[in-house]
């Protein structure tokens, strides 16, 4: 199993407060998602979906949107351990991803047409291979149906688009203005000052 090898390779243990690379053993309840706002060398949002005991992860430079007309680039990055969904704090400068991390949104997700958790995970696996994921989020800020679609043609394999589907949760309001942690209600500034 090469799971989380890349996560481990990018980080020096003991130098960062981030969770250790570990595949989650417990696979129960609803599948989870998290969006972390990350003020690293470039500000971005990390969008992560639980599947197979890890968090499948994309860096979204412009962040998620509830407007179906907006298609934001989402660059697939290394799998993260499931426990990363609770990580909020400061990665020390000089380390990979050095900067402030906020748990901007969290919740659960389902896959349309999948009735069970394991069916949903299978659909995610197939979707990753195919280059198209469909899922329904139940978060505190993000809700409703979304698609992740891999770019075709000459684009790198890691480049996807995150797109809100038209439904009752679609909105032209800028959801990024809700700018406090859903874990601690802190602002980025407060997290930065509070350390990890
Ligand atoms: Mn990041």
Mean pLDDT: 94
Query: How many beta-strand runs?
Result: 9
Give the percentage of residues in beta strands: 35-45%
**Anisotropy-based shape:** globular
Q: Give me the secondary-structure category.
A: mainly beta
Largest sheet: 8 strands, antiparallel, barrel
Textual characterization of the structure:
It is a single chain. The chain has 196 residues and is mainly β. 14% of the residues lie in helices and 37% in strands. The protein is built from 3 helices and 9 strands; from the N terminus they run αββββββαβββα. The protein has an 8-stranded antiparallel beta barrel. It is globular, with a radius of gyration of 16 Å. The model has no long low-confidence stretch (mean pLDDT 94).
Short description:
The protein is 14% helix and 37% strand. The radius of gyration is 16 Å and the shape is globular. It has three helices and nine strands, in the order αββββββαβββα.
Describe the structure using short key phrases:
196 residues, mainly beta, 3 helices, 9 strands, binds manganese (II) ion
């Amino acid at each position: 199993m090469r799971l989380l090898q890349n996560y481990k390779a990018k980080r020096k243990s003991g130098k960062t407060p981030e969770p250790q690379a570990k595949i989650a053993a417990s696979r129960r309840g609803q599948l989870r998602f998290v969006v972390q706002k990350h003020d690293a060398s470039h500000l971005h949002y990390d969008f992560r979906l639980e599947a197979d005991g890890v968090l499948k992860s994309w860096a979204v430079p412009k962040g998620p949107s509830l407007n179906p007309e907006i298609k934001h680039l989402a660059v697939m990055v290394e799998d993260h351990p499931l426990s990363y969904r609770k990580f909020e704090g400061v990665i020390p400068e000089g380390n990979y991803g050095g900067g402030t991390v906020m748990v901007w949104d969290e919740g659960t997700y389902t896959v349309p047409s999948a009735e069970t958790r394991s069916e949903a995970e299978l659909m995610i696996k197939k979707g990753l291979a195919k280059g198209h994921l469909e899922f329904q989020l139940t978060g505190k800020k993000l809700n409703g149906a979304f698609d992740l679609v891999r770019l075709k043609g000459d684009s790198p394999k890691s480049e996807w688009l995150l797109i809100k589907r038209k439904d009752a949760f679609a909105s032209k309001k800028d959801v990024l203005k809700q700018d406090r942690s859903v874990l601690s209600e802190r602002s980025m500034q407060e997290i930065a000052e509070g350390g990890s």
